[in-house]
Amino acid sequence: MDDDSDGVRRCLSGGDAATACRRAPGVSVCFMTPARPAASVLARSGARARVAARDFRGWLRASEASFIVLAIAVGAGAGLLSVVLGALARTLQHLLFALPADTRLSAIGQLSLASLAVLPLGGAVLALFSFATRARKRRLIDAVEANALHGGRMSLPDSLVISGQTILSNGFGASVGLEAAYAQMGGAAASVLGGWLKLRRADQRTLVGAGAGAAIAAAFGAPLAGAFYAFEIVIGTYSPAAIAPVAAAALAGALVAQLFGVQPYLIDVASNTLVETHHYLIYGGLGAICALLGIALMRAVALVERGSRQRWLPDWARPIVGGLLLIPVAIVSPQVLSAGHGALHADLAVGASIGFIVLVLCAKSAASIISLGFGFRGGLFFASLFLGTLIGHLFADSLALVAGHVVIDPRNAALVGMAAFAVAVVGGPMTMAMLVLQATHDFSLTGAVIAASLVASAIVRELFGYSFSTWRLHLRGETIKSARDVGWVKTLTAGRMMRKETRATPAAISIAEFRRAFPLGSTSRVVLTDAQDAYAGIVVVPTAYAEGLEPEASVATLATGHALVLTPDMDIAAVMASFDEARTDELAVLSSDRCVLGIVSESYVRRRYAEELEKAQRELFGER
User: Fold this and answer.
1) Percent of the chain having pLDDT more than 90?
2) Please, which of 91, 284, 324, 449 could form a disulfide with 419 given CB 3.0 to 4.6 Å?
3) CB of 561 within 8 A of CB of 537?
4) ∠307-311-317 over CA atoms, to 5°?
5) How many whole angstroms separate alpha carbon 15 and alpha carbon 377?
6) What is d(CA 161, CA 134) in angstroms, rounded to the nearest whole number?
């Protein structure tokens, strides 16, 4: 340390270090601190962030309360997405069809031919959008398929494509609803968040259901209907562990939608007839009629879709042709356009004649079939509600004509038909019952709705077995009938369960040679291969030691199981069915060229299946 006339300098040195200096009048102090490369500081910060994120994820996975909070956040986001999607579609309709403010497209009394030219234009725009996003070159997965087969994993880009297609289809006037877009984006947002948090499979599926249900709750302002939609349509089962998060998400979604001005779905129906006990039988008959008509509608959509996929009609041209076919239907009745919100309320508010009801019923059915059959994207949720009101109204008027007096109130019948037909097409008896309850606040009517919905659901399950969403999956080759988790069945394949066969035994050796190679007790079964290394059967070792056998005879004469074999991609359900058919303890797994890959034992397969069932049961009841 040196003193001079200008002041005092004090230097603190720490070896190989960088110098940081502060100067004051007369004093200069230099602090020598060890140098820290920026890269190492960033690396340590990143490591701490990763540890914090991992701890946060672990806390979320371990705490039920935190999962409910997460579901509330997802529900609020899903509600906001529903508001945005609905606003986009309605804005598009108002711009394209020059609609008055606060007027729905389906409530317009008449549209000019020039206005209806928007329909084929919309088909062209949809085809261009699908081409630009390569949507027609890959398989797009919705929330139901994701929960049934993929553990709740959804693609956000694909969900944006589906939602964009739905908004364009609805916005240009095609006879489809926006509910598919609502549920898709609500489920996708939940799936992305659940993937980032690395949730368990059961929690991921619950969160996706909560997101989709919250979106529906926001769209209708009906949290009970949204919650039951999640359970019945998206999750596929009522789970005690899922009740709180799903209900909380639905409430959050409906609240957010109301904060942004979305009004609850209320129907003001002044009924003059009480729902009496004997009316339940009559409404049960209405439910049966709705079931049969719902099956006919779903089959008609599939038939038209198959017919439109002809070689002479390019895939991009299908929605354009569909838009052209919608024009004459819309000229007959503009009520067929879009989902039908405005038409439903108008028809319930004003009593219509039987002739008019039949006309609109046929026209709306045709428009929905054409729209979906020719490639427009959307759902039948609200269209089925609208069609159900027409069927119920027609049913009540027909009974009055036959009996000579009013048997059941037409407006009550319209609401019962609304729910029953929606159950037949979409599924979810309690979903539709809660929708009617929250729309009418009529508990007496809700009992009749439940009765008719259960009848419709039972008949559809017995005669058809699918809802509209699972029917479309069935046409693509899937076998699922609900969103119940069967993905683990698909992933547990023969290739994953087999014991690899590394020792090839030629089928040409004699029994004597076989006995020398495989003494009793060394192994239970041996796989034989021919000269081309192809599968030649299985020999149970003790059978080679039976009395009366010729030692010089070929061991191939003792082989069994030539015909029935397994492939590596067969799932566990197919493997168990093969064992039941073969009536043997072990089966060989072969490649496409019949080379032996391994052996699967029946006892191991049954044990793995029981383990997975027990695991699914624990997850169902929320046991960690």
Assistant:
1) 38
2) 449
3) yes
4) 80
5) 71
6) 9
Identify the pLDDT of residue 289. Answer: 96
Spatial distance between the Cα atoms of 433 and 540, rounded to a whole number of angstroms: 60
The model's pTM is 0.79
CATH topology of domain 487-617: CBS-domain (3.10.580)
User: pLDDT per residue over 5-25, tens digit each?
Assistant: 444 444 444 444 444 444 444
What is the per-residue pLDDT for 50?
66
Question: Which 3 state secondary structure label does DSSP give 174?
Answer: coil
Q: Same CATH topology for 60-259 and 487-617?
A: no
Which residue, among 304, 323, 377, has the nearest Cα to 124 in the 3D structure? 323
Backbone angles phi, psi at 597, to 5 degrees: -100, -35
Distances (CA, A) of 425 to 78, 187, 294, 471, 581: 24, 21, 5, 10, 36
**Sign, CA torsion 238/240/243/246:** negative
| Region 279-475: CATH code | 1.10.3080.10
Mean pLDDT computed over 290-304: 94
pLDDT for residue 350: 55
CATH of domain 60-259: 1.10.3080.10
Domain locations in the chain as residue ranges: 3-37, 60-259, 279-475, 487-617
List, for residues 317-349, the tens digit of each pLDDT value. 999 999 999 999 999 888 889 887 777 766 665
For 355-405, the pLDDT digits (tens) are 888 998 999 999 999 999 999 998 888 889 999 999 999 999 999 999 888
CA distance linking residue 192 with residue 190, whole number of Å:
6
User: For the sheet containing 596-601, what is the strand order?
Assistant: 499-500, 596-601, 586-590
Cα gap 174→337, rounded to integer Å: 6
